[in-house]
Design a protein that fits this description.
The complex is a heterodimer of chains A (about 240) and B (about 500).
Chain A lengths: L1 H6 L1 H12 L1 E3 L8 H17 L5 E5 L5 E4 L2 E5 L6 E5 L10 E4 L6 E8 L4 E13 L7 E2 L7 E12 L13 E4 L14 E5 L2 E7 L7 E7 L5 E6 L3 H5 L1
Antiparallel strand pairs in A: 3-4, 4-5, 5-6, 7-8, 8-9, 8-10, 10-11, 12-13, 13-14, 14-15
Helix pairs in contact in A: 2-3
Chain B lengths: L2 H4 L16 E6 L4 E6 L2 E6 L20 E4 L4 E8 L41 E5 L5 E3 L5 E12 L2 E13 H29 L6 H12 L11 H11 L10 E4 L3 E4 L10 H4 L3 E6 L11 E3 L2 E4 L3 E3 L2 E3 L2 E3 L2 H6 L12 E3 L15 H4 L84 E5 L2 E11 L2 E10 L2 E9 L9
Parallel strand pairs in B: 6-22
Antiparallel strand pairs in B: 1-2, 2-3, 3-4, 5-8, 8-9, 9-12, 10-11, 13-14, 14-17, 15-16, 17-18, 19-20, 20-21, 21-22
Helix pairs in contact in B: 2-3
Classes of the chains: A alpha+beta (about 240), B alpha+beta (about 500).
Chain lengths: ~240, ~500
């Protein structure tokens, strides 16, 4: 048994993976377990010697960006589109690539992405005619009586490749009641996290810095799991 | 889907109960659990459950987490930093390029040994590294929660205190699942009791329930009270005991006010033994809670404290200390190893405020030579560090004359480069960091000849680290964002 374990490259690789806290990633290029183990050793060694293995350049026009899964997505400063750059991965046969998505027609507050499912989640605001006559609910209407032009918050689930509606999403666009003005939203406090089917969004208003909101949403099924909001006591008392 | 259809079932986010605490930060532990950071506690939610919609008039509609951990003190800001990637489960191959994509990205070229000013003049950023064929396993790694809490009582806030809690993620999941198991035991018992009261329901169904009950072992942990019990207790007390563990009373003419905080119904001692909490007294300076990073099993935090003429900075942990925590009991700090002190440190921590026995593991990590922060710089080794013999300290204390403090630099803003240090950096290789240099609000500084570099970690993703980089050459300052990959953290130049 000892000889079998010691001589098996696969077992040794699995042991090393577990020992260092890694799991296998999908690969496009086949490589032997010995190669992968050598790569793992090299990675661990890199942490010690802290020497780069490759260098490159990315064009940077904005600091509004997200890094996820080897992709670098950056929101254009004025064009309201995304510039996406794929980091190369020679061990997986992935070459460098860069592309630009079509422009979006709403104000983008923040965005997140999950490259494994080609998902780009964009949180933004747009101005719409909204009918508030039915108490708590609101609906989009044409320009009629009982109208009110409001900023409606929305989450768009798009594809990373071309910003078309994500086919995996049950509801490509999710809208909810907006604020009087999108300028009340603090961009720096808006954040989107994606984990599997879950999408988490948090944001905060400028006028009430103690008012954070959290929305957990299953973007694949369209169901809302959790909504967390807060109203400051002082605001309530006033 | 048509736009109008989206509004058929509109979802209106309303202002919820005033009893609900703020959500300071959140992160997904896995695809099953959500972690939220509140002012007084951490909460773990099981995402497979269905939580009710909030009703601001009914505090009972507040979502009940599967586990909660009380935080020492009231925090008013937080940042979460977790290791690994969220897509750690092997998924499909990388996304294909769009139809009209062009290979616009030039073939990566090597950055010259000495980064010149023109390299960043056109607003380019550099990335380095190589994608690896394996991911970090978040379930075995750690999560760092940086918190800021007030010291003193509002509005007389003496200072703010930065606090970092390190949590092994697997332990977090374990405890959450234990809590779920406990609730399952309760449910089965109730069902069994109900079945016994109904003769027609006895027999096979009851036997099955008892069988299931026998398979699920109830927890026998005196310090571990599931949140379900807490919630039930609160419902019995009505609104007297709120979710925040405080009681709301009515004072004529003043409406509802918050009474002094009551102790929570559960003790986090057991849970906290698997976490590491250390405090950084900031002496009123802003503490950037978004600054610490977790990559791999490593935790790196750049924490600066100005103490008189001394500045203390940057610590880096070896991942083994997380496992070492599993072995701790009597003195957890003895199992903590400091892998590398990048910048020489200085003791800056006050004696722990919390009692280890009652509040959990509060480790007064002190870096630098053993001088207590509340000491008057007499160089003695007195203080809470005496029980931490295995922490490796840096090269000692350095004197530095501080100019007025600059404003807090934010990503995208032009960083402020500290003035030249006392020592000359001539002759340094670009990969070396002049130990005489200092950091500033998260900016680390190094020099290579006449060129000075400053950088600051601003984001991490899997094995990629983004840095704000500033380069000063003479009177010119260039800024850019650098993206480092391949876990070569520290290979900035």
């Amino acid at each position: 048994m000892h000889t079998f374990v010691c001589d098996s490259e696969e077992i040794q690789y699995k042991i090393q993976l577990y020992y260092h806290g890694y799991v296998d990633a999908p690969r496009t290029a086949t490589s032997s377990y010995m190669d992968r183990r050598m790569h793992l050793d090299k990675l661990r060694h890199q942490w010690v010697i802290t020497e780069p293995t490759q260098n490159g350049r990315l064009y940077l026009s904005s600091t509004f960006y997200v890094l996820e899964g080897g992709l670098f997505a950056m929101l254009g400063r004025s064009s309201n589109c995304f510039f996406i750059t794929r980091n190369q991965g020679p061990s997986r046969g992935i070459g460098p690539l860069a592309w630009k998505t079509p422009s979006l027609d709403f104000k983008i507050l923040t965005f997140g992405m999950d490259p494994t499912v080609n998902l780009l989640a964009v949180f933004g605001v747009t101005e719409m005619w909204v009918d508030y006559s039915s108490s708590m609910k609101f609906r989009l209407v044409t320009r009629t009586l009982n109208r009110d032009k409001k900023h409606v918050m929305q989450i768009h689930l798009l594809t990373l490749t071309d910003c078309t509606p994500c086919p995996l999403a049950a509801l490509p666009v999710f809208r909810f009641s907006g604020f009087p003005d999108h300028r009340y939203i603090q961009d720096a406090w808006s954040k989107i996290l994606i984990s599997g089917p879950w999408l988490g969004l948090t944001w905060r208003e400028v006028l009430d810095s103690n008012w954070e909101r959290l929305l957990i949403w299953n973007w694949k099924s369209g169901n809302i799991c959790l909504v967390w909001s807060y109203l400051n006591v002082l605001r309530n008392r006033s | 889907m048509e736009l109008s259809e989206c509004f058929e079932e509109p979802f209106l986010i309303v202002n919820v109960s005033q009893y609900i605490e703020r959500v300071l930060a959140f992160s997904f532990i896995s695809n099953e659990y959500l972690l939220t950071v509140h002012q007084e506690h951490l909460s773990v939610y099981n995402l497979s459950k269905e939580y009710p919609r909030f009703n601001r008039l009914d505090p009972s509609t507040e979502p009940v987490p599967v586990y909660q951990l009380a935080l020492p003190g009231i925090c008013h800001a937080a940042g979460l930093h977790r290791s690994g990637s969220l897509d750690h489960i092997p998924g499909p191959p990388p996304i294909p390029p769009p139809p009209d994509a062009t290979d616009a990205l030039p073939i990566p070229s090597f950055i010259p040994e000495k980064v010149t000013s023109t390299s960043f003049e056109d607003g380019t950023a550099a990335w380095r590294g190589e994608e690896v064929p394996f991911y970090e396993d978040p379930s075995r790694n750690i999560l760092a929660v940086n918190l800021i809490r007030y010291v003193g009582h509002w509005p007389r806030v003496a200072s703010t205190m930065g606090m970092t809690i390190i949590i092994p993620l697997q332990r977090l999941v374990d405890f959450a699942e234990e809590t779920v198991a406990k609730s399952a035991v309760d449910a089965i018992r109730i069902a069994a009791k109900h079945a016994e009261a109904q003769p027609e329901a006895q027999g096979k169904a009851a036997a099955q329930m008892h069988s299931e009950l026998s398979r699920v072992q109830p927890l026998e942990t005196p310090h571990h009270y599931p949140i379900f019990e807490l919630a039930r207790l609160e419902r019995q007390r009505g609104v007297e005991l709120t979710r925040a563990g405080r009681s709301a009373t009515t004072v004529p003419g003043h409406g509802s006010v918050w009474a002094p905080r009551k102790p929570r119904c559960f003790q986090p001692a057991r849970w906290l033994k698997h976490a590491l909490v250390f405090n950084q007294e900031t002496h009123g300076r802003p503490y950037d809670y978004r600054r610490s990073i977790v990559s791999g099993s490593r935790f790196v935090s750049s924490i600066e404290v100005r103490e008189g003429k001394r500045l203390f900075q940057l610590i880096e942990f070896n991942p083994t200390w997380v496992n070492a925590l599993e072995r701790r009991l009597a003195c957890p700090a003895r199992d903590v190893r400091v892998h590398k002190v990048v910048k020489c440190g200085y003791p800056m921590f006050h004696p722990v405020e919390q009692n280890w026995e009652t509040e959990g593991l509060i480790v007064p990590l002190i870096f630098g030579e053993g001088v207590a922060a509340n000491d008057d710089s007499d160089g003695s080794d007195e203080g809470p560090t005496d029980s931490l013999p295995e922490i490796h300290f840096g090269s000692g204390i350095e004197e530095y004359n501080f100019p007025p403090l600059p404003p807090l630099a934010t990503p995208g803003s032009t960083p402020i480069i500290p003035p030249p240090p006392n020592k000359s950096g001539a002759g340094l290789r670009p990969t070396e960091v002049d130990s005489s240099e200092h950091s500033w609000y998260g900016w680390r500084v190094a020099r290579c000849g006449e060129v000075k570099y400053a950088w600051k970690v601003i984001q991490t993703s899997r094995d990629i680290i983004a840095l704000d980089v500033a380069i000063q050459e003479g009177s010119l300052i260039y800024t850019a964002v650098s993206v480092c990959a391949c876990a070569c953290m520290g290979c900035w130049f």
